[in-house]
Amino acid sequence: MSAEELRLLIEQMRGGPLDFEADPAAIRETFDGMLATFPVEEGITFQDVSLGGVPTVQSTEPGADLGRTLLYFHGGAYVAGSPTGYRALWSRVASAAGVRGVAPAYRLAPEHPFPAAVDDAVAAYRALLEEGVEPGGLAVAGDSAGGGLAMALLLAARDQGLPLPSSLTLLSPWVDLTCTGASMETRAAADPSLTPAGLRQRAGDYLAGQDAGHPLASPLRADLRGLPPMLIHVGTAEVLLDDAIRLAARGAECDVRASLEIWPSLVHVFAAFSFALGEGREAISHCGSFIRSHFSK
């Protein structure tokens, strides 16, 4: 690890204006501005499409296997972010896997509380199946809140009798909206981007008075039986560390194959900073290899 790369990144994050304890409109403006500065890999083409009525951004590049697809859900604490804003991350993951990427613009809270995002995720997933994408050639991924949404999608798809994808990749997933993991407190001083108070406020926006323990809101509390193999990445410098650790343990309890990678000193969704961080590039390569290895031969 380049200690200097990480030091500079954390310094920039601590000095930046992003504050998830602000009101959602302010978060969106600041977050979108930050994401717009992230460089996109050359050679990747983006196109606006629709999946099941959900606006979606699609990525392709020369040589990609268009018969296989990565369905990706962006982060933003359920109140911010967009496929366009996150395209530098999810398109790199799709590129590393050698496939087409699709990222739906699921509806955001507080205007559209739970389960609107889950409904959009299921609609997009159904549309991919209906257009002929084979489950064995379909992978699902997401980061932060998008990781929780990816989990919720698979639980909903399983319970609705839909075929499940080949794998699930989660980057710093937020899977417990009760925000009760020990790292919410023990890692708060180390985390330069998220705070327990901010996450609790955003959970309140998303839930709008509904039960934080609902399995589609907090998949950590769900029965995970029957889900495909999972890869989970998390850093030790983030308040969501215990969400990832407990999710892997929950997978084991439910006989789900779960690979947990804990990256020392790394920050929330550090793969998003691959343009400035060697570990980010390494993480994306790991994700691509994992996704490819689980596609049907």
Task: Describe what you observe in this structure.
The chain is an alpha/beta fold and 297 residues long. It has one domain (3-294): Rossmann fold, CATH 3.40.50. 38% of the residues lie in helices and 18% in strands. It is built from nine helices and eight strands. It has helices spanning 3-15, 24-35, 87-97, 116-130, 145-159, 183-186, 196-207, 241-253, 278-294; strands at residues 45-51, 54-60, 65-73, 99-104, 138-143, 167-171, 230-235, 258-263. An eight-stranded mixed β-sheet has the order 1-2-4-3-5-6-7-8, sandwiched between helices. Strand 7, helix 8 and strand 8 form a beta-alpha-beta unit. Helix 3 packs across helix 9 and helix 4 (116-130) packs across helix 5 (145-159). The longest helix is centred in the C-terminal third of the chain and has 17 residues, at 278-294. The radius of gyration is 17 Å and the shape is globular. The mean pLDDT is 97.
Would you tell me the structural class of the helices and strands? alpha/beta
Cα-atom Rg, whole angstroms? 17 Å
In terms of quaternary structure, what is this?
single chain
Order of strands in the sheet with most strands: 1-2-4-3-5-6-7-8
Helix content: 25-40%
Q: Please trace the helix and strand order, writing H or E for each element.
A: HHEEEHEHEHEHHEHEH
Instruction: Tell me the domain tally.
Output: 1
Q: What would the principal axes of the Cα set say about the shape?
A: globular
Which homologous superfamily in CATH is the superfamily? Alpha/Beta hydrolase fold, catalytic domain
N-to-C span: 34 Å
Average pLDDT rating: 97
Kindly state the number of beta strands.
8
CATH topology: Rossmann fold
